Amino acid sequence: MSEGARTQPAPRSTKPGAARQATLYRPLAGAGAGNGRGPDELRAAALAVFEAAELPAWRRSGFWTTSLRDLDLDQLASRHPGRDSGVPEVVADALGDEPLAGRLVQVAGDVVDVQLDPELADRGVILCSLEEAFERHADLARRYFMRRLTFERDKFEAAAAAFWTGGAFLYVPPGLAVERPFQVAYAIDEDGTAQYAHTLAIGDRGSDFRLREYDLAAPFAGRALHAGHFELYLEDGARCRLSHLQDWSAGEGEVYDVSTHFVRVARDGHCTWIPMHLGGRLTRQHLELSTAEPGADMRHRGIYFTEGAEHLDLYTVDLHESGHTTGDTVWKGAATGASRASYEGLIKIDPGAQESHTYLQTHSMMLSPRAKVDAIPSLIVETDSVSASHGGTVGEIDEGQIFYMRTRGLSRPEAVTVIVEGYFEPVVVQLDDPALEALVRERIAAKLAAAAQDIHAYAAVR
Amino acid sequence: MADLEIRNLHVRTEEREILRGVDLSVSKGEIHALMGPNGSGKSTLANTILGHPAYEVTEGEIRFRGQDLTEADPEDRAQAGLFLAFQYPVAIPGVSVANFLRMAVNTQRDEPIGVREFGSELRRATELLRVDRDFTSRHLNDGFSGGEKKRCEILQMAMLGPEVAVLDETDSGLDIDALRTVAEGVNTLHAQTGMGALIITHYQRILHHVTPDFVHIMLDGLIVREGGPELVDQLEREGYDWLRDELEVVTGAPEEDDV
Predict the structure, then answer these.
(1) d(CA B230, CA B208)
(2) What residues pair up with B168 in beta bridges, in sequence order?
(3) Which ranges constitute the DSSP H helices of A53-163?
(4) CA–CA distance, A87 with A187 (Å, rounded to integer)
(5) For chain B, domain boundaries
(6) What is the pLDDT averaged over residues A408-414?
(7) What average pLDDT does the segment B37-48 reach?
(8) In the prediction, which pLDDT does A2 show?
(9) Cβ neighbours of A409 in B, within 8 Å
(10) Which of residues 50-79 of B touch A (CB under 8 A)?
(11) Which residues contact A407 (CB under 8 A, 6 or more apart)?
């Protein structure tokens, strides 16, 4: 599917540094709603961009590059296991038997499972594939679809917009509060899969709900791609606790993930958004949360933990489009092995957004002498009368803490485990979701156990 | 032979030699006080007994119950029955006191401690030290006041039940109530389990609440005087200068803060 890249000569330089864009904010301009284009027209437009675009590389200030130029798209294809192929074990294990408000599972290109509490369906909740939403709830789907997402910034963003299949659509009607979580899961279980995902979720006025999205790989050997879009629109007074759990690292499979996630919070709405990146061969994600109208408030908490040869490049945006909006962002990361993790967090306050108040902090911890981490908070403030501040730390484990615990009988690796688990714990408890908290703690513990040798090696060189 | 035997101990950091041949014996059931001015090497001795990696033993040995621990890992020393109450306990954010104590207790056992048994031991220890049970659900030393940190050290000591505990300036920065609680904790463990203690202090006040069997005075990396409780009174009256004058200690070592 990469023929286009070769037949259409790209009019841009390929010399290193040509695509230095990671530190430059490129707004999500909105491809869909409001400009009258339906899904087929958007697909066609996105396809044209896809065919013209090169495989991207993001470069920043000379020492950080995220490149997908080695990815051979000819080796990847959309796969359709069939709608009756069943929920993969890796997803079933992660979900357990916890009662949910509803769930939707997509494997490769097909939605294989949709369940919705019938009582919620009676009250107007919609949970179905995005394909089905365009057939049965066309007005709603067309009103919101790609309202703020774009497909023009890079080849994979265009690919996701051009080639998505299945997809998830959630609508929570006005005033409805749902305590149990809605669950969306995307799974990849085969070598050579290109999964193009799209989740569209809408919380209508005054609704209150929880949404979890899991990205999981079943054990397989080989390479796969996940290029995804996620968009959530919270209307006036709506509240959502949103979490993303990304763990593509179940087997030997190497999953490349280039995705864009966007959340818009309208007047007096609130979103607590907690993404967790716990595995993937290469991840480049743009996560943007807009407090778009007065009174909108957000809490953004994130975790990443890279290992082995993983490469993670996160770019988050705390966007204030209107005055009297508030935000609070905290990201915590750790890296073992020879992994690379970069977190860049931008606070952007638009002209006219006076009386906005926000804070961003990011912390990274290196657990291996070969790991590299990078934490860059930044600010673009285009108005006055706001408060916005940020801070970042990159550090190693404090030897004083380790000695303290060893005098209580813990071994060095045990002490490191306790320190790292404790480091993530304040974010984990904010999930306020016992099943998910248990899952995340278990994954963090497993990653630490897998990194035990590294942690020993780290001790030896010190 | 005493339980903890320190023989001709020479210790240096990257910069300089701090201990220059220390001999000290502490047995179970004995309370020892180690006194001395700032910079004399008291904290270095405490940290070296537990195996702090920043301190290098260049000569001499540390034996505990016949076992040579001079090069042992800190966790092996702890499991052998040594304990250090830190002068400046570090915070471990995100880890509750109770969870940490459970992990520490489990390092001494083949099978993990049962929930009920741990609960009753923790209750016994918190009652002994008059700490609120809620205290144990807080994160270890994170945001604790100075007094809370020291109580937490003694709580850990009570839960781990060491053979010999080293208390490094546990009394500094404590108000009188906290000081009494700490002292009672030491006295009770001493009485109940026969725990031995090496109480390192710059002041005399904790020794009004815990009566030492032996008093050692350290100056410039050496133990220069040993005796009974009467030495404490003499120091209280006369300070350390008389000792310096009497000994005419010539060291050339610069005055530094406790290390």
Answers:
(1) 12
(2) B200
(3) 89-95, 118-122, 130-136, 138-144, 155-163
(4) 9
(5) 4-96+162-247
(6) 93
(7) 94
(8) 37
(9) 75, 78-79, 104, 107-108, 160
(10) 50-53, 73-75, 77-79
(11) B50, B51, B74, B75, B77, B78, B83, B84, B86
Of A278, A284, A259, A247, the C-alpha closest to A91 is A247
Element (H, E) at A401: helix A399-406
pLDDT of residue B259: 46
Query: CB–CB of A271/A264 below 8 Å?
Result: no
Tokens representing A403?
A: 């000695």
Model confidence band, residue A10 (pLDDT cutoffs 50, 70, 90): very low
d(CA B211, CA B217): 16
Residues written for chain B: 259
Q: Tell me the pLDDT tens digit for each residue of B214-258.
A: 999 999 999 999 999 999 988 888 888 888 877 765 554 444 444
Instruction: Give this prediction's pTM.
Output: 0.88
Q: Is residue A287 over pLDDT 90?
A: yes
Quote the minimal CA–CA distance from B247 to chain A in Å. 36
CATH architecture classification, B4-96+162-247:
3-Layer(aba) Sandwich (3.40)
- Residue A198 tokens read as 């799209």
Q: Is pLDDT above 90 for A110?
A: yes
What is the C-alpha to C-alpha distance for residues A26 and A317, in angstroms, rounded to an integer?
10
Token reading at B182: 């700490």
Tokens standing for residue A279: 């595995």
Q: What percent of chain A has pLDDT over 90?
A: 78
